[in-house]
């Protein structure tokens, strides 16, 4: 499910999550922390921008030949 973490300078971070019925804000520390952990894991596992482009080019070649 898509989500956005909104960090503010003078207020707590807020989570905005999209669902089948539309978007919804979440402000509880536990919920925001869980989303932050998910984001951190995704970012740690992601390829670099250059590696992402190379991977997409490789996949494109595999599916067009």
Structure description:
- This protein is an alpha+beta fold and 65 residues long.
- The chain has one domain (3-64).
- Helices cover 51% and strands 23% of the residues.
- The protein has 2 helices and 3 strands, in the order E-E-E-H-H.
- It has helices at 29-45, 49-64; strands at 3-6, 14-19, 22-26.
- It has a 3-stranded antiparallel β-sheet with strand order 1-2-3, covered by helices on one side.
- A hairpin with a 7-residue loop joins strand 1 (3-6) and strand 2.
- It is elongated.
Q: What are the defining features of this structure?
A:
single chain, 65 residues, alpha+beta, three-stranded antiparallel β-sheet, 51% helix, elongated, DUF5753 domain-containing protein, DUF5753
Ranges where pLDDT stays below 50 over 5 or more residues in a row are none
Distance between the termini: 33 Å
What percent of the residues sit in helical stretches (DSSP H or I)?
Answer: 40-55%
How many strands in all?
Answer: 3
Sheet with the most strands, sense and barrel status: 3 strands, antiparallel
Q: Oligomerization state of this entry? A: single chain
Strand order of the largest sheet: 1-2-3
What spatial form do the alpha-carbon principal axes imply?
Answer: elongated
> Radius of gyration in whole Å, from Cα?
17 Å
Organism: Streptomyces lunaelactis
Domain DUF5753: 2-57
Protein name: DUF5753 domain-containing protein
InterPro entries: DUF5753
List the helices and strands and how they pair.
Layout: E1 3-6, E2 14-19, E3 22-26, H1 29-45, H2 49-64
Antiparallel strand pairs: 1-2, 2-3
């Amino acid at each position: 499910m898509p989500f956005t973490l909104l960090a503010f300078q003078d207020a707590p971070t807020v989570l905005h999550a999209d669902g089948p019925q539309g978007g919804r804000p979440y402000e509880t520390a536990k919920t925001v922390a869980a989303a932050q952990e998910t984001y951190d894991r995704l970012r740690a596992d992601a390829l670099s921008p250059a590696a992402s482009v190379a991977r997409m080019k490789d996949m494109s070649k595999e599916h067009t030949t």
